[in-house]
Amino acid sequence: MKRKIILYLFFLFFFLKTNAQCAMCRAVLESEETQSAAEGINNGIKYLMAVPYLLIGGIIFFIYRKYGTLKK
Question: DSSP character for 1?
């Protein structure tokens, strides 16, 4: 039981620390005049978001092709 409580507290503090970093990044990106860093951050977020969807889509397509051809 102690282990669970310690783990929950660790995750709570870890989460709060990551929220603070997002606010700092936002302030820095909003104060920049050229907005080139903001565009780079946005592109990075798009790539990080797209990769899991492509991987899962590929796995689902592979499973569909493998088991879909067996039913004919």
Answer: -
Residue 46, domain member (yes or no): no
φ/ψ (deg, to 5) at 33: -85, -40
Q: pLDDT, tens digit, for every residue of 3-22? A: 989 888 888 777 665 565 67
- Mean per-residue pLDDT over the chain, rounded: 81
Structural domain total, the chain:
1
Nearest one of 25, 26, 29 to 38, comparing CA atoms: 29
Q: Give pTM, 2 decimals.
A: 0.50
Residue 4 lies in a domain: yes
The region, left, alpha or beta by phi > 0 then psi within -120 to 50, assigned to residue 32 is beta
